[in-house]
Amino acid sequence: MGGSSGRRESKPMPAALVRRIHRQSASIVAKLLKADRTRRGGSAIKALTLQPDIRGKRATHALCCETLRHLAVLKEVEADCGLVRAAKSTKGLKLTPELAYVLLYEMLVSERESEAVGDEETFVLGRKRALQAALARRLAEAGVSSVAALLGNGAASAMGAGEKDFPALPRHVRANALQGMTPATAEATLRKDGFAPERDALLDDVLTLPPGTDLHAHALVKSGELIQQGWSSCLPARALAPQPGWAVVDACAAPGNKTTHLAALMGGEGCIYAYERDKTRFERLKKTVAMAGAKGCVRPTLGDFLSSDPRRDVALRRVKAVLLDPSCSGSGTVRTRGDHLLPSSAAADANTNDESSSARVEALARFQEAALRHALSFPGALRVVYSTCSVYERENEEVVKRVLSLAAERGFALECPFPRWPRRGLPGVEGHDKLVRVHPSEDHAEGFFVALFVRAEGDTEREPARMAEEEEAEEEEMEEKTTAETKKRTRAPGVPTGTAPHKRPKPATPAKSTKKTAPNSRKRKKPLL
Predict the structure, then answer these.
(1) CB 6 within 8 A of CB 58
(2) By C-alpha distance, which of 239, 177, 170, 240 is closest to 205?
(3) Angle in degrees, CA 202, 207, 208, rounded to 5
(4) Is 416 a catalytic site residue?
(5) Average pLDDT per run of 10 along the chain, which is 529 residues long?
(6) Is 322 helix (H, G, I), strand (E, B) or coil?
(7) How many CB atoms lie within 10 A of CB 307?
(8) How far is C-alpha 364 from the geometric centre of its chain's CA atoms?
(9) Under a CB-based contact definition with an 8 Å cutoff, are residues 228 and 288 in contact?
(10) N or C: less crowded end of the chain, CB within 10 Å?
């Protein structure tokens, strides 16, 4: 299989597992290409390869990435030889285009020797000479001697940026206090097992490991004592800093790593209302919560956060903190998501400097602003964190800027959650020096943004009075609208305001006919049975 070798040399895989990895990879590549083409239902390569039913997760992830990275060349070779078309005439073969690309990568590019582990593999291997000749012609036409050089020359520009532009990031794990794990114990155990963890200087419950470290099969990960979580993704919960016993809202909770981080910081004491409106992601959230041992204080809620009513719901009135990490462009995570490997990447790169013109980013920013306004409406909230994994100003500083006046009205002010962190928000918004940014390249982590809104305990005491005033104003406005609608319905068309409407004449009653009814036309009674 493609990819890095990792900590130690892996043993040869059984043929059945290799066959399964081929088909898993083909299925994932198909999903990614469809989502990229339709701009709907997208997901990260990492998320898809970490699904519970995926076997050989690391090998599958590597094979998906390499297939996408070489996709343009593989498509050309497949088309030159008509591989998929030829397979259709062979009974029993199920060679999809995506499976063909996966097998072509293994045979033509990968250093691994291809094996006939299935009918489709046997079919492709039987045409090895023709496929190699087709690749050689493509290389000759481009005037290069290798596939790597072909990609470097831009012949496969549809695949976007090369790996040199996206160096591998360190791996991170979080010691899960809910399962009794401490950073010191986690560090000692990993070192004993041959890994090289380092304690993080800013986040004391996080360990950093070298790029490519694979811990999926480690006992501490399987037990939930260690949680694999990106470094940047650990910032929001630490910024919110909820206290044990608090009621907290996680507004967009799935897949649940931030939710369980909140639970760990609260020592499992209190209540976290974790909202997720998508049923599939909701199930994922519940599994994450269970694995982390957070079921005692997390209440997964299938529903839309924006539909919650903190003014009338007694439980939500008691909420002390809100974590809002809403849907965003994910522009800060293209390295880990693998978006730079997709065909649309080149077009997206061309528009990088004109982010505000993107209709998708604008729509996301409007949703984010609405969600943040709603988060700031919780009457008992003392702390509200707004975070994204985006690097776009429109989704970050601009959203904060547009809610600052509302936040001030409700007693909130921006506060810096990490004074020792050097990178701040972009100028142009009041309080930008209190905002936190993470730069993908310079900080060797996923791009991220964090804003913390804080208000004093005394300010929440004035909330009930303010809410009562708002409710009274809303009722008066509704009453005025109802009165206006009633007057409008009772007013005759064309009659000026203040003029009594004329009564419409009643329609004339038809005169009764004096003509006698003919005997044959009388209604007959139904015969008795």
Answers:
(1) yes
(2) 177
(3) 90
(4) no
(5) 45 88 94 78 73 87 90 92 92 92 92 84 93 92 83 42 58 97 98 96 96 90 96 98 98 96 98 95 95 97 96 96 94 70 57 58 95 97 97 96 97 97 95 96 92 87 58 67 69 50 47 45 42
(6) strand
(7) 9
(8) 12
(9) no
(10) C
Which SS3 state, helix, strand or coil, does residue 384 take?
strand
Amino acid, res. 446: E
Tokens standing for 299? 């209440």
Measured distance CA(289)–CA(280) in Å, rounded: 15
What is the crossing angle of helices 359-375 and 397-409, to 10°? 20
Q: Computed over its alpha carbons, how large is the radius of gyration of the chain?
A: 31
CA atoms of 71 and 343, how far apart (whole Å)? 9
- What is the DSSP code string of 239-298? HH-PPTT-EEEETT-TT-HHHHHHHHHTTT-SEEEEEE--HHHHHHHHHHHHHHT-TTTE
Of the listed 234, 252, 389, 416, which one is catalytic?
389
User: What is the model's pTM?
Assistant: 0.70
Report how far residue 386's alpha carbon sits from residue 123's, in angstroms, rounded to the nearest whole number.
53
Name residue 152's amino acid.
G
- What are the residues facing 464 on neighbouring strands? none
